[in-house]
Amino acid sequence: MAAGAYEGDRARVRGILDAVCAEGRTTLTAPEGRQVAEAYGIAVPAEALARDVDAAVAAAADLAGPVVLKIVSPDITHKSDAGGVAVGVEGADAVRAAFHRVVGNARAYEPGARIDGVQVQRLLPAGHEVIVGAVTDPTFGKVVAFGLGGTLVEVLKDVTFRLAPVTEAEAESMLDSLRAAEVLRGVRGAPGADRAALAGQLRRVSQLVDDFPEIAEVDLNPVIATPDGTCAPDVRILLAAEPPRERRRYTRAEILTTMRRLMRPRSVAVIGASNEEGKIGHSVMRNLIDGGFRGDIHPVNPKADDILGRKAYQSVADVPGEVDVAVFAIPAKFVSAALDEVGRKGVPNAVLIPSGFAETGEQALQDEVVRTAERHGVRLLGPNIYGYYATWQDLCATFCTPYDVKGGVALTSQSGGIGMAILGFARTTRTGVSAIVGLGNKSDLDEDDLLTWFAEDEHTECVAMHLEDLKDGRAFVEAARETVRRKPVVVLKAGRTAAGARAAGSHTGALAGDDAVYDDILRQSGVIRAPGLYDMLEYARALPVLPTPRGDNIVIITGAGGSGVLLSDAVVDNGLRLMEIPDDLDAAFRSYIPPFGAAGNPVDITGGEPPSTYEATIRLGLRDPRIHALVLGYWHTIVTPPMVFAELTARIVAEERERGNDKPVVASLAGDVEVEDACAQLFARGVVAYPYTTERPVAVLGAKYRWARAAGLLGR
Amino acid sequence: MAAGAYEGDRARVRGILDAVCAEGRTTLTAPEGRQVAEAYGIAVPAEALARDVDAAVAAAADLAGPVVLKIVSPDITHKSDAGGVAVGVEGADAVRAAFHRVVGNARAYEPGARIDGVQVQRLLPAGHEVIVGAVTDPTFGKVVAFGLGGTLVEVLKDVTFRLAPVTEAEAESMLDSLRAAEVLRGVRGAPGADRAALAGQLRRVSQLVDDFPEIAEVDLNPVIATPDGTCAPDVRILLAAEPPRERRRYTRAEILTTMRRLMRPRSVAVIGASNEEGKIGHSVMRNLIDGGFRGDIHPVNPKADDILGRKAYQSVADVPGEVDVAVFAIPAKFVSAALDEVGRKGVPNAVLIPSGFAETGEQALQDEVVRTAERHGVRLLGPNIYGYYATWQDLCATFCTPYDVKGGVALTSQSGGIGMAILGFARTTRTGVSAIVGLGNKSDLDEDDLLTWFAEDEHTECVAMHLEDLKDGRAFVEAARETVRRKPVVVLKAGRTAAGARAAGSHTGALAGDDAVYDDILRQSGVIRAPGLYDMLEYARALPVLPTPRGDNIVIITGAGGSGVLLSDAVVDNGLRLMEIPDDLDAAFRSYIPPFGAAGNPVDITGGEPPSTYEATIRLGLRDPRIHALVLGYWHTIVTPPMVFAELTARIVAEERERGNDKPVVASLAGDVEVEDACAQLFARGVVAYPYTTERPVAVLGAKYRWARAAGLLGR
């Protein structure tokens, strides 16, 4: 149990669950559920279990005031449907009548049902009806859920999820994560809810399912939340038929040791190297050589003596010295046998390019390869991948073509097609890359191993990952949280929608999780979720270029009023804040711009201004310590042509960075085609700039802000 | 009144409103509101006005059952705040007590208030609380609003608007436009609402405000909607202090006559033409000549005999023959005098490039120009614009540079900066353009005039408009509806967000409408709203390339499973539908793809396939009449390189179009940089294709579908 976790009465719950199991049941009765809740300090209304009508009358008298009667039967799950509930009953006669009615209805509904009695419960006061629950997600395990009750929210699907157990702060963040969060604070004169009590409820439920993995589901629906506390009149608990499977986990040190040898190898063997053009084993050899890899390259092929001028070996066993990586370029059916030799040689990493495994239905073949690898402690990348690039090593272990623009972005993709898009995009935009890695079937190495490495890798400043599923959602979240503290992680989760999720299923055979769960938990892990492929690529390209903002005050400086309006729209759309300009700063801006220009924010310097106006206002924006980020809107004119704007902006930004005024600057260039070159020049000199769009520069700035917040570098 | 409109008792309402006016009031009392409602058949609960306590007791007895008592006073607007409401009162004693309490509270709350009595109203049964209202929008005039009542929806802002009056079909569409629309149909066993009665209520309220322009606001909050009908216990009606200003309107014939001469001129005069490089009057002359305009170009300049080889005139009066357009390139202060000469010459159109009018605070100068123009019947484009292009006339009446790619897109922008972005984007993508028009301050000609023209213009296949405000929302909607029947209209409305709207205010001095109203009413008019500048440009470029779909069945054919998942996501995001593939069609696809490929939808032909597999499956997709649109996902491989894919796809699409199988085809190309050329080739040959993105091709297809639906070419 984590330090500071909520401590429930575990022994009492253990006893109840064991008793339920002993009866072969997976559903707890209401009184059992209530006892479990009490053991974890979850507030439930005063009540009694009445086994006969006199006991019910006595119990109602003890409770004083109106009560609710509910049938108690392990055989009746939906009490209301069975007519087994009577609400607002008051007085001995009414209780007596209600008892008989409830029991009679239940008997008629389910003739053979065992009836343990009737719950007599104090009627709760009016309040907000909320839902608190926990489920077992196939990707993330125990997950706690929170929503506002009632038909409307059921229709609008306004619910939020967190990994269980939640801390107090996380529980409170759930209250604020609903679209209708305001309601809980009290609106239009309606009272709010006791937020601390609600957060406590969430914390206790989450701890309960964490302490008892066999609890598959908890449902407190509704929880009545008033300004004075919370109370759960119905506690529904389901047990799992079988315990979840544990997945093999490696320690951080183990992961780093093999990842270091994979990403910075000194010696690479190519299993199935070939002299024959068109073969994958040829392309891989050619790319390793043409890419300029500075370590040893050992072709392995029993039928050749020499491949592309390098001595070829019969078997990897014959290769002299240590080998860090074996790249496989042989048909699927031969992989396991060759892997056995690789394992015996003590090679720590196998890169399995071949397809023909789980993705084509050959799960057994893949399982065999995994077993062979585990026997020798070899870690596997793939199978069914294009390979990988480690640009700072000049390593191109792929059948694609080398990529040589070294930089700070590490990109991974689950799909080969997306990998090719990454390569093409990077090449055309000259994106500086530290690694591109194909993950394919993820039979072993996956996103969490790579994140663990990229967090350490000093060349990597930003990680971008395309994924369709996660083998182990918790391991991912753990690795992501650790990495996000140091560098931004962008995630494109494919299969977001129901239709998309179906396609993911048919593609990888993996069950894609429900997107609502993914969305909340990825957010919780601090990664930046890209809405689409192109956004992921642009974020990856631009994030390392932008310095980290030190505060929320954004100022737009624009030569085109029209761009100013659109840039303002984009600022709000991205959850950013336009600075309220103080009077002295407003006056300072006004001193540079024509009298009919608009100060305030956007600062509209107007269209006909010379370079000196751009220069003066941009410099002011960079120098004033109250401003934290600049969004520039350029308008192509003869007075200030595109390359003049690019040159002056890049120069001022560089000069001010020298002086320590290091702020993110993004720009939207509206103009004729020359603005494209101007943007390329600006990008190369540290200003994130795009032509013909006001949305993209602000979206990138928004992504940087989201990361800065997640990394704790800004408030909230 | 339109045919089929709801007919209320206008005389009765006229009498009530006149009486209210006569008293100098702008707020109707509850009984007055109720009478107005009754005159328009809006259901209100049975009630009586009791002037004393005995009358109240008698009225309650007549109504039988519990009643509500409400104070009636012209001086008390918020009855609840005044303690002037008592709910659920039953029995003579209780009514007596409640009457005294309500009157006493009101007297204490507002000592001088005139008290007309107490409304005694039947207590309504429980039902859905909805809000029906009407407001006077500064842009759109009378607008009817509908939402679900209660705190939650107030927090979530789930309301919808339509121009008043609404037809029955429009009223019904409002019920379905709420995010929580399901609620009204009844969910989770809760009863639904009487939809016909609700729609009728909306229709009647909308007709009321249309019939009586002086009604500024109607508020029925709540309306109680049950399965048996609707009822409005509170009717609040406010009158406008002054009547709205009428704007000068031109007939369709008048608009077309001048627009034809503007967009297809035979003779253009340049007021302020100049030989001096760097002057706008020089650039305009140079561009008219270099652009290859085939009509007459007449420089006007009192200080020159000859400009760029053309005879210059002292005054436009001296120009021989008729002149269709006078382009102004002189400082703002000289415009009015020169315009007077232009008017006397009988020139129908003045294109006012100069700035220095309303946008710099010189509203008076602009008003003077408008008055001069109206005196002569000259229509004005601008001021404060870059000018305009009419490419099919080789006309470049701007200070920018000529554009010569003729095609089907007409683009307009309110801002000069956005106009420059349009030009640059068009040039770099070789977008075929019919016109680019700057609207600037819109002192006269605006979007509705242009829409009216573009609807007729045979060269224009698609219209894209950037706008910050609308001078006359109703005229726009009217023109848009008419145009959308024939061709798609894309709108980028800037100033969507609160921050954006503020910036729009400071830019044009125009009051930007609330975006919720804009959004609903633009949708109602059938235009496609672009979420950002780049989207508008891409939609404009691509929509004319795509044929119109004839049904909803979309099939994805992909070589990259990873793209298939992302394309599926995009299909759902854009409100499109993946076809459920019938068994025979599934079998037909399967016959072409490897056994481990996935049929269903997406059809995953797998990555290593030769051109023949793409060819066979695409052809099948085009030929099968049950499929209506194709989304292709290409994966760069050695077996099927990008240009091979492009060539085969373009060829098959062309062949099948020849055979009458004319369906929209969009493609996402994932690969190395060669895919960029492949996309350009595909685009040029009728397939909308983009590299490195799965989102954009589907977004464009979605835009085409939205238009097809709005134009009535598809169901719904």
From TrEMBL, chains A, B:
Boundaries of every CoA-binding domain copy: 262-357
Stored SUPFAM superfamilies: Glutathione synthetase ATP-binding domain-like, NAD(P)-binding Rossmann-fold domains, Succinyl-CoA synthetase domains
Pfam families per the UniProt record, alphabetical: ATP-grasp_5 (PF13549), CoA_binding_2 (PF13380), Ligase_CoA_2 (PF19045), Succ_CoA_lig (PF13607)
GO MF, one annotated term: acetate-CoA ligase (ADP-forming) activity
Recorded family membership: In the N-terminal section; belongs to the acetate CoA ligase alpha subunit family.
Name recorded for this polypeptide: CoA-binding protein
Organism: Streptomyces boncukensis
